[in-house]
Structure formats: C-alpha cells, structure tokens
Design a protein that fits this description.
437 residues; alpha/beta; 12-stranded mixed β-sheet; 6-stranded parallel β-sheet; 18 strands; 26% strand; binds NADP nicotinamide-adenine-dinucleotide phosphate
C-alpha cells in the first residue's frame, strides 16, 4: 500500500435515490479495496438531494446533505462528480457546471445522453475531463466499454438488445401464462417491476434512449433518441403471443441497431419494437426482468452480454466501475476514451429499414384466396418465406412470414390486405428477427 497517495480524491454525489444510496453504501463498504485499486482514497464531500429530511437506504451523514446541487457541482475542490438525479434538467446544467469547474463526471443518465450527448461530450473535451456512463444502458451489464474499447479494432454490424426489464418481465409472463397485457402489467406493478406510470418503459421510450446510445457507440456516429423508431408493447395481444408460440418463437421488445449501406455510404438504423424471435435465439432465453445485448461484428462474430439491467445495487456496480477508472485517470493525469463520432453516418428512416413480417389473418375458406394473398405481397415486391393455413370454414386462417423487405413495403402490404373483402380480420402483425428454425 506504499504507492497509495494520502491525499484523497474528492467526490460529489448528485442524487441519493435508488442508485445514489447504493453508491454511498458501496463506497463505504469497499473503501479500503477502492483505495488500493484507485491508488488514493475517495472522499465523499457532499450529497445533493431534493428532500434532505428523507430516510435514506444508506446511512448518509446529515452534514454532507445539501439541496444546493449547483453549488456542490461548482465547487473547485471537487475532483469527481457522480450524477444520479436523472432527467434532462437540472442534470445537464449540473454536469456542464461540474466539467467547467474541473471535475471528471460519471453519470447513469440515459435520457440526457440520448437527447443531448453531443453537448456533454463537447464540454468534457473542452475541459479535458472524463465523462463515463456505463450505467446508462443495461444497468450492471458491461456493454458500453466493450463497444468503445474492447471492440474498437473490429467492425460492429448489428446490436440487438433486450434493454428494458419491465417490458421483458411483462412479455415473459404473457408467454408463460398466456395472459393479456393489462392483467400482467397490473401484476408487474404489484411486484415492483413496473412504475405506477409505466409509460416510459411500456411505450419503449426508455429502450429508445438506450438504442440511441448503443448505436452511437457501436457505429462511431451520432444517433439521438429522436432518430430511433419506437413502438411499445401495449398493443401486443394474447393472440400475437399465441401466433409466436405456433412458430416456436417468443415476443420480445428489442432495441435493434444496424449498420447498412445507404445511398451516400454507410448508414445506420435504430429501432425499438416488439418482434418475434425463434426460441433457439440466445435472446429468447432472457427471462423475467433480465437484460441482454447481442452484438455481431466482423472479426469477433457473435457476442452476448447478459445480466441484471436495473436496480439500485447492480446499477451502482457499473457507476463504481466508472468511478474507479476516472479516479485512476485523474491520478495519472490522463483522459480515458472520449466521444468517437467520426463516421457521421446517415440515419435511415424506418420505412427504408429492412425487416421481416409475420401476418396472421382470418380469411374466407375458398379457392383463390391464397393466390390473392400471395399476389398482394408480390405487388409490393415482398417475397414470402412461409405460408401456413389453419382451420376450415369460418375458422380458416392464414399465417404468412415474409422474406426481408423494406418496412414501408411490408406495412403497405398489410394495409392492402386489410382492404380485401375475403380477409375478415388481420389478427396479428409483428416483425420477425433471427433466422427461422
Ligand atoms: N434505478 C435504476 O434501476 C436505474 C438503472 C439504470 C440507470 N438509472 C439511472 O440512474 C439515475 C437515477 O435513478 P434513480 O432510480 O436512482 O432515481 P431516484 O431514485 O428517483 O433518485 C433521484 C435522486 O435525485 C434527487 N434529486 C432529484 N431532483 C433533484 C434536484 N433538483 N437537486 C438535487 N437532487 C435531486 C432525489 O432527491 P430526493 O431523494 O430528496 O427526492 C433522489 O435522491 C437516472 O438517470 C436513471 O435513469 C437507474
């Protein structure tokens, strides 16, 4: 321990809720090991909160608590700032203030990074300080630094993630119980897996922010949450789940980021929507509220990162990992990895994105129907991979799975099918990912 600097690195914590209180607990519990790993002690000098009177999970000394987050972020004697308040403001101003005053910053704030990461990266560059954010995507799972550092010598082509635990929990329960969305949502809320207002999770906003961050890092370009096509799971019906089962597939809310050839060079697409994936796909085995990110790259091939994607303690693990790195960098007077956005790829609109559709419909049980359905696909330049016909008479149904086509062509095909008089009802339309079994 001779090499340990006696003078501590001074840390300000902005926010002390689910994640922040676990950061305090781990800092305390592992103080000696952290000191040895960093090369100097980390001293907590202030904790900004909204309601100082509140009982905290961690035992935070009352003297450290302040409601003046700006004053704390602006202290010139602070070396490291952890932002775990969340949201856009005041988090953005606080991070910018901290960087301007010479602190290195660790944040878990996916919403802010996905909306306005460019401003934060520019400020970190100007201040020559670190900005680390591993905890912002998939909680405890190390995925951002593998993309930024371990895979920096490879070409990532595709990232597919289950990056929202709430929606995975709901879809998993719908699959195992055969229950409808509303019923399972209620159960998830009772068990604490879904918020009282579940919109951000259920409608895919949370996953879209993470998709923007993943796409930016994987393809060395800038993708914001506004660039990400988004559909949530509130429209997923028991009939969609049954259709998936019949194909030996499961329905998952996927964040899909791809590198494609665009009209003017490499282009990226980023989207979040429910999709059927075969049960044999590694992502199909991700159950309950777990997260996983599946990466495909030229040299490494297929990689899967799996683990708890949320929760105070798992998320604090990722925050602490970043904190140790930025603290070491401070001691060695170096900067870690900054923004890499040189590729400046065009972001493709959803209509131009290539995907596959599964379409189930109730149809008239008479000659010529199958041919007319096939013609509707052909007229939109969509070729069919499989057709399954089930039942007879009033129960006759057709299930078509397409080959890859643009999303615009596929949705136009479905719109055309809906107008045909022999199609009584289109009972399930869902995108399909992964090779069929
Ligand atoms: N929770 C997770 O599982 C998880 C997972 C991954 C990433 N994240 C990210 O981590 C961040 C924090 O999430 P969380 O779940 O810990 O949130 P949280 O439980 O709501 O905690 C937020 C904290 O910020 C404080 N705060 C709010 N507004 C403030 C203000 N204006 N000035 C000073 N303090 C303020 C709150 O103070 P009071 O306690 O006094 O109200 C609270 O301590 C978010 O960016 C979130 O997206 C969370």
């Amino acid at each position: 321990m001779d090499s340990i600097r006696k003078q501590p690195l001074r840390l300000a914590l902005l926010g002390c809720g689910s994640v922040g209180s676990q950061v305090v607990r781990l800092l305390r519990q592992q103080a000696d090991d952290l000191t040895a790993r960093v090369g100097a002690p980390i001293e907590l000098v202030g904790v900004a909160v909204r309601r100082p009177e509140l009982q905290r999970d961690a035992d935070v000394p009352r003297a450290l608590l302040t409601t003046d987050a700006h004053g704390l972020a602006a202290r010139d004697d602070v070396d490291l700032v952890v932002e775990v308040i969340g949201g856009i403001e005041p988090a953005r101003s606080l991070i910018l203030t901290a960087l301007e005053h010479g602190a290195s910053v660790v944040t878990a704030n996916k919403a802010l990074l996905a909306e306005d990461g460019a401003t934060l990266f520019a400020a970190a560059e100007k201040a020559q300080r670190d900005l680390y954010f591993e905890a912002s995507v998939a909680g405890a799972i190390p995925i951002l630094r593998p993309l930024q550092e371990s895979l920096a010598g490879d070409q990532v082509r595709r990232v597919i993630g289950i990056v929202n635990g709430t929606t995975n929990f709901i879809l998993d329960k719908m699959d195992s119980l055969g229950s409808g969305f509303a019923e399972v949502l209620e159960e998830a809320q009772e068990l604490g897996f879904a918020e009282a207002d579940p919109t951000a999770d259920v409608e895919g906003y949370d996953a879209a922010a993470k998709a923007a961050i993943l796409a930016s890092l994987a393809f060395h370009t800038r993708v914001t949450s506004a660039d990400v096509y988004r559909e949530g799971i509130s429209e997923v019906s028991a009939s969609d789940i049954a259709s998936a089962k019949a194909m030996n597939s499961v329905v998952k809310l996927l964040a899909i980021c791809e590198l494609r050839e665009g009209a003017h060079g490499p282009a990226v697409s980023a989207r979040v929507h429910p999709a059927m994936i075969p049960r044999s796909h590694p992502l199909a085995s991700v159950r309950e509220a777990f997260n996983a990110v599946f990466v495909e790259s030229d040299a490494a091939g297929q990689l899967m990162f799996y683990g708890p994607g949320a929760g105070g303690s798992p998320t604090a693990s990722a925050v602490l990992g970043d904190l140790v790195t930025v603290a070491r960098n401070r001691l060695n007077d170096v900067r870690g990895v900054g923004e890499s956005a040189y590729a400046q790829c065009e972001v493709l609109p959803m209509g131009e994105t290539l995907t596959r559709y599964h379409v189930a419909m109730d149809v008239d049980d008479r000659a010529g129907v199958l041919a007319a359905v096939a013609l509707a696909f052909a007229e939109h330049d969509v070729s069919i991979q499989t057709v399954r016909q089930e039942g007879h008479g009033d129960d006759a149904s057709l299930v078509v799975v397409s080959h890859e086509a643009t999303d615009a062509a596929l949705s136009a095909t479905v719109a055309a099918l809906r107008t045909m008089d022999f199609v009584h009802d289109v009972t399930s339309v869902m995108r399909v990912e992964g090779d069929a079994e």
